[in-house]
Amino acid sequence: MNQQMQKKPDWGLSYGELVWREFFKSRLNAACLIFIVFLFAVAVLAPFLANDKPFVIRIDGRLHFPIFASLSASDYSVFLAAIVGLTQLLLIQRNRRKIEPSIRSEVLWRQVTISIAVILIGTVSAFIFVPRRLDATDYKSMITSGKASGGIFAPVPYGYGRTDLKSREQPPNRRHWLGTDDVGSDVLCRLIHGSRISLSVGFVAVGISSVIGIIIGAILGYFGGGVDFAGMRIVEIMMAVPTFFLIITIVAFFPRSLLNIMIIIGITSWTEDARFIRAEFFRLRRQDFVRAAVSLGLPLRSILFRHMLPNGIAPVLVNATFGIAGAIFIESALSFLGFGVAPPTPSWGQMLSLGVSTTGRFLWWLTLFPGLAIFFTVLTYNLVGEGLRDAIDPRLRKAE
Amino acid sequence: MSENGELLSIEHLSVEFFTEDGAAKAVQDVSLKIRKGKTFALVGESGCGKSVTALSIMRLIPEPPGKITSGKIIFKGSNLLSLTEKQMRRIRGDKIAMVFQEPMTSLNPVYTVGEQIVEAIELHQKKTAEQAWADAVEMLQKVGIADPQQRVVEYPHQMSGGMRQRVMVAMAISCRPALLIADEPTTALDVTIQAQILDLLDHLQKEIGMSILLITHDLGIVAERANEVAVMYASRIAEVADSESLFAEPLHPYTQGLLKSLPQLGLSVKRLPTISGTVPDPLHFPTGCKFHPRCPIGCNDKRCQTVEPELRKVDWWGKDPTLQNRERCVACWYAPGYETNVEYKEYESRYGRHK
Amino acid sequence: MTTYIVRRLLLMIPTLLGITVMVFAISRLAPGDPVSLSMGPGGQLDAARAADVRKARMALYGLDKPVPVQYAKWLGRVVRLDFGDSIKHHRPVIDIIKERLPITLTLNIIAFVLIYTISLPLGILAAVKHKKLFDRASSVVLFMLWSLPSMWVGQMLIGYFCGPTFKSWFPPAGLSSNYAEQLAFFPWLADRLWHLVLPVFCLTYSGFAYLTKQVRAGMLDNLRADYVRTARAKGLSNWVVIFRHAFRNSIIPVITIVATLLPAMLGGSVIIESIFSVPGMGLLAFEAVTTRDYNVVMAVATIGGVLNLIGLLLGDIAYAVVDPRISFESAE
Predict the structure, then answer these.
(1) Is the pLDDT of residue B97 over 90?
(2) What is the mean pLDDT of chain B?
(3) Are C284 and C296 within 8 A, CB to CB?
(4) Which residues in chain C are closer than 8 Å to B171, comparing Cβ atoms?
């Protein structure tokens, strides 16, 4: 029999790579992922896309760069997160080519932990060190009045905090492509900046709920018995409490802030993840590789998270994408009801609530556009979640 | 049924599956004859098309993605492939019944065992509910289940694998079919249970007088239980013979390889011989004879690489005179008695010296 | 089975206690209280007098005692089904609930019935016609329905169909028109139903999308199962195989969805009732939370919790009844 000697190391496809390939077989999935990347780009680059300050302007003969000068701490941390995220993706690509599969996941864990640490430290430092600059200069009037010249503005030349009571409640027109809201802010600008709120709520809330759910589920699933019985009572309490009601109770009673909302959504949605992981760990506990790990005397932490978790994490990943969609939905609902972030911070849900004005007029542009934004974001995440589930499932079936 | 006791005759059956990766020919030009009251074994490795052949008889191939592209299946005078679905339904379960491989999942978990047997009885026979239930209990007894009155109202999950397979057999014979198709009936069971189920099938065959089409990959079972054997490889039939002749004098290199690889009691070898290579992917069959890449004769033979041998009847050519006058078919250029003189000459003119 | 039910009901008690403790703690430990909220900045009274009034009112509502004591007193009253008085409405909470709960339940039950009536046949049909146009088109539509945010739908419906701007086919708010009291029974009923159309629609569409997908997925799985092949091999007709065999197995997960659907709809009620101004439990909860009406908040949490737990229990019982593989001992 002829068999060709293979020159380069052919490790075959890893589980992740298989799922990746299966996922992209559908054009719909690819399109959704592209849309999500687009949303991310919009959210990260928001201050450059919609800002009432120009990129560059000449005042008294000297060049000023107002946008860059007025970037806030949260802007910097968002940039940092984006850069770290991109680097991580590139590193994963490099890992696939250079590192062999058996140690790949260890390397990956290390890289991810470092990335998260970098982001956290960066965010905290940004908030400590970057001064809050409030630049209220009206650059546009400076240009019209001739004091300044040569201003290059962002594509949507409005700021989300800027109110302009003269142009309240205008339907879409040439100056304001999607109209204005009840205090005169440009709708498109608020939509762009609102994407940051929505996406960050989605990810942070799901991150929190996944971590809590995994830890609790792992402990309950691994130990079983009395631990499981007591733990399940707690899980049942969280499941039985009317979740949305609990959320609005907490949100109403505590000061309104974005961080609070993220944390609250996170700590009320972990029960499904916990149940998935618990079921998976019940199944995995009896498998031989776990018994081998135990008999080798490996520390519990290692058994749970290094050996069992990667095998059981698939349903949690799928649930996480649905969770992001759900978190975005909850945040919109909260903002709609008036419990969410306070103006002037832009939120899609809050814009939605302005759709019917105090005089009873139906301001359709304030309902349609934020609603479409929420709808498409939620839709794409749901589709990705569904696509992910379909991509993982046949893998599981073929393996069995 | 014809005079020589033929019950079912498959003629040049071809089945294809259309997948997103291309069209896979699962069964190509398969012909065989099952005689009344006899056991016919269809042997082959996983994926060679034997189950598909069996499902084709029952016309249970899922229409997309599968399709029966050509051939006839003659049963009691009519071509099963040209019957309407309604006519086919009357045959299924009643005249031809099937037992499947996985007893764990082949029974509906939400109905009792009795309900599922009664369903088959009530469908095909005009009996009252009481009679049908009494029949069901009788069937359970026939297949050797102890305490059938109790068992008949139990659910499948309350039974062991072997017992479930017995229930499947009971369900299949409840209407006394003329042909029972058993698709790897014992593969999922313990060896001891295997023997019991096969004994049961033997016993029932004698009692009811039905034919059995036994599909298996286990040559041991074939040697013990089958009257006639067809060996399938990669969607085609390699060889057909009565079981004695096949084991005594296999004609096809594949069959020879299979038999050589069986461990023999009393013979000590350092290493069991194997057939090198693996079964080809149905989407990418080799050209010519499908076995040629693994065949000691054919791997270097230009004809075997390019021209596929069809299944032909051959006359006896062996050493054992008691095996004379038995019907044998083979699909191999180098099987004794296969090649015609014309083909011999053609080979020499084309490829040079003949092996 | 009765021992199982009794055991579950008994287990509900610690769970309920847990819920109430949690909500109580949150409401009391959060900054602010109803008295301060209702008093506002208090411009008319000088500081000392304002402080006195505040103290008196706090004592009136029992808010001056330490939190655990407050909880104990509340618990003592609740066992007698006395939920206290609403600080905002100045009425016994139980009366308010008696008025509002039936409305929410009506809304949700109608939605529930509609969901199941439409989803089951639709899901089965989609699975049977798998990969054909009907299945593909309906999948897309269902997915989109599932992703629509309910407040957007509600808002759009009100804007486009209830108002002066576009069409005025439906009433934008409330349960009955102003003149409803004067109508005879059937016109009154018709008026009621007319008011309910949009809120029920909003409650229905997302649950229906979810359930249809579940039914379809379950049916697809079961139609490929081995026992379906056995059933066909027996000679059963296609419809019998679909309904008696595949469907019977598919409803098992579908029934258990009941357990999760009910709490989800009750939660969704909050949004729908706010948008359409339907005086139900959802709106009550919303108002109570904004005005720190503690007694009402606790009552809503307790009743909501009870309803959820009953839903879970019914789901588990149904599961054990429908699937013979599950006995009550192993249903834990």
Answers:
(1) yes
(2) 87
(3) yes
(4) 230, 234
The upper half-sphere exposure of residue B258, i.e. CA atoms within 13 Å in the direction of its Cβ, equals: 25
A230 vs C: CB within 8 A: no
Q: Indicate whether A396 pLDDT > 60.
A: no
Report the alpha-carbon distance of residue B168 to residue B60 in Å, rounded: 17
- Strand order through the sheet with B211-216: B96-99, B179-183, B211-216, B39-43, B228-233, B236-242, B328-330, B312-314
Residues contacting residue C78 through CB under 8 Å, at least 6 positions apart: C20, C298, C302
Which among C26, C158, C300 is the nearest to A253, CB-wise? C26
Residue B56 confidence (pLDDT): 92
Q: Which chain C residue is nearest to residue B121, measuring alpha carbons?
A: C234
Chain B residues within an 8 Å CB radius of C233? 58, 60, 92-93, 97-98, 100
> Which of A300-314, B243-257, C191-205 is predicted with the least confidence, judged by mean pLDDT?
A300-314
Q: What is the model's pLDDT at position A208? A: 93
Measured between alpha carbons, how far is residue B324 from residues B116, B244, B314, B316, B319 in Å? 47, 11, 11, 6, 9
Segment (H or E) for B215:
strand B211-216
Name which of A362, A348, A349 is nearest C156 in CA terms.
Answer: A362
Q: Enumerate residues 6+ apart whose C-beta is below 8 A from B203.
A: none
pLDDT, tens digit, for every residue of C238-293? 888 888 898 888 888 787 777 777 777 777 788 888 888 888 888 888 888 888 78
Answer positive or negative: Cα dihedral of A388, A391, A394, A399. Answer: negative
ipTM of the complex: 0.83
Q: How far apart are CA A266 and CA A247, in angstroms?
A: 10
**By CA distance, what is C227's nearest residue in B?**
B106
Question: pLDDT value at position A79?
Answer: 87
CB–CB of C249 and B108 under 8 A?
yes
**Measured between CA atoms, how close is A249 to chain C, in angstroms?**
6
- pLDDT above 70 covers what percent of chain A? 90
Four-CA torsion B145, B151, B156, B157, nearest 10 degrees: -100
Collapsing DSSP states into helix, strand and coil, what is residue C162? strand
Q: Taking residues C82-95, what's their average pLDDT?
A: 80
Testing the interface with A: which of C33, C155, C157 to mutate, by most A Cβ within 10 A?
C155
Please answer whether residues C232 and C245 qualify as being in contact, where contact means their C-beta atoms are separated by less than 8 angstroms: no
| Closest-approach residue (CA) in chain A for C150 | A333
Contact (CB, 8 A) for A220 and A231 = yes
Mutate to test the interface with B, among C227, C325, C326 (most CBs of B within 10 A): C227
Cross-strand partners of A56: A152
